[in-house]
Amino acid sequence: MKRFKDKLVLLLVLILATLGCRTKTKKEVVSRVATLPYYTDTSFTPQWLAQNSDSIFGLHQIAPFQLINQLGDTVTQKTFTGKIYVADFFFTSCPGICPKMTANMALVQEAFKEDKSVLLLSHSVTPEYDSVPILRTYADAKGVIPNKWHLVTGERNIIYDLGRYAYFVEEDLGVPKGENDFLHTENFILVDKNRHIRGIYNGLNMTAIAQLIADIKTLKKEG
Fold it and tell me: Which positions ≥6 away from 63 have C-beta within 8 Å?
């Protein structure tokens, strides 16, 4: 009888543990704040501003650009007018961090697959190699949805200037970079509908990716 009771207790413990795991899995990550801050320089010091604040006007914005995506289509800042988007920098032949970054960006794509107000933008840092056909092959292999996730190539100096002076993606803050220095970073940048930077995330970290997805949902509430 005692052995039966012991087995029953063990069974109940296992059931409760399973239910607890399921509850934890279903718990959705939410933003840590009601509204997201603005970022205007390489220090990524948050600026907390009300949506109707006059201080928003004149804040740093992503500069105009013109690049070519994996479909051979021209992509400019107008492509993202009225859109929230996530930007990063990669290259198709990267054997290190890029495959993981791409896999994590794919998670963001999946989370907003049916949401036309959210786009993704990945810049090749080896544009001399990453031609349109190579980007298209890479995109097909990685499950990239056309016109949802743009993999872009173009003039090297334009892409590098965007990375360093528009998105502030490099980690070596305060260290001067020359034109021939390689741009390589795991950072994902969240940009709002007005081309303001609203977040920076480690593209290799699953917790950061979950937070990014939550922050996009928060940003969408701004309208």
Answer: 77, 161, 162, 165, 166
- Per the prediction, the chain carries an average pLDDT of 87
Torsion of CA 30, 22, 202, 221, to 10 degrees: -20
Provide DSSP, 77-111: GGGGTT-EEEEEEE-TT-SSSHHHHHHHHHHHHHH
Tell me which CATH code domain 33-220 carries. Answer: 3.40.30.10
Contacts of 99 (CB under 8 A, 6+ apart): none
The 10s digit of each residue's pLDDT in 130-164 is 999 999 999 999 999 999 999 999 999 999 999 99
Beta bridge partners, 128, equal: none
Q: Who's near 221: CB < 8 A, 6+ residues apart?
A: none
CA distance 146 to 136: 9
Burial class (CB in 10 A: 0-12, 13-18, 19+), 218: middle
CB under 8 Å to 205, separation ≥6 — which residues? Answer: none
Cβ atoms within 10 Å, residue 117 = 13
Q: Report H helices in 112-193.
A: 132-142, 156-161
The whole-angstrom separation of Cα 195 and Cα 191 is 6
Residue 66 is inside which H or E element, if any? strand 66-69
| Spatial contact of 215 and 36, defined as CB atoms under 8 Å apart | yes
Q: What global pTM score does this model have?
A: 0.84
Structure-token pair, residue 135: 């980007």
